[in-house]
Amino acid sequence: MASAVCARFLLQRSTQGFLFSRAVPLSSPFLSRAHRLGPSDDEMYQRTTVSVMQKEPGGAVMIHSYSSQGFNIDGNKVFGPCAVLPPAILQWNVGSHEDITEESVSLFHMVEPKIEILVLGTGARLERINPSVLALLRRKGIAVEVQDTPNACATFNFLTSERRVAAAGLIPPPISTALDLTQE
Fold first, then answer.
1. 82 vs 106: CA distance, rounded Å
2. Nearest-angstrom CA–CA distance, 149 and 124
3. Distance separating alpha carbons of residues 118 and 71, to the nearest angstrom
4. For the segment 56-113, what is each residue's pLDDT rounded down to a tens digit?
5. Tens of pLDDT along 99-143?
């Protein structure tokens, strides 16, 4: 008896030309092309999850200080050049502004969430960046601000305090340009 019902069902499907046709009841686990998913159907097949890689609101990364050796970022001492991204602080393999190439900035346009603005700190002085690097970042939809490192640190801190999705590529200045306080 069950085989006869199954054979009749298969015959109906083959004569109508579609594997899933109107002959399939809406309560069937086999959905037709014309079937519209309702909220309960979606929950039945797949649940959507989201992982957010940012800290709590207001918990932006801040650059506290810099020296010729590196940076103090939220209490973490980073030696040498670094890349500060929304979810991470990484060492950046550049020695000077001349080493900022399309390859060395690739990490900034490949991360999620997408970066709005990239602040590049070129050391003790403002240096020119290769125009092809700037053009690449512009094509990727990332605004670029090139400054000396002391100003780049301040700009990055301001942008993150404004809750902008900002990143920084920082090269420590060869000599300290920070003011030293002396007590008399």
1. 14
2. 6
3. 17
4. 444 678 999 999 999 999 888 999 999 999 878 999 989 888 889 999 999 898 888 8
5. 899 999 998 988 888 999 999 999 999 999 999 999 999 999 999
- Side-chain half-sphere CA neighbours of 31 within 13 A: 10
How, if at all, do strands 82-85 and 117-121 pair?
unpaired
Residue in this structure with the two tokens 């083959």, named with its chain if needed: 14
* Virtual torsion, Cα 132, 135, 137, 143, nearest 10 deg: 130
Return the structure tokens found at 100: 């900022």
- Rounded to whole angstroms, the Cα distance separating 53 from 113 reads 8
Tokens 């092309």 map to which residue?
Answer: 33
Q: Other C-beta atoms within 10 Å of 146: how many?
A: 20
Beta strands in 86-175 (DSSP E): 88-91, 117-121, 143-147, 166-170
What is the full DSSP assignment across 4-50?
HHHHHHHHHHHHHSSSS-TTS-TTSSSPPTTPPP-HHHHHHH-----
pTM confidence score: 0.64
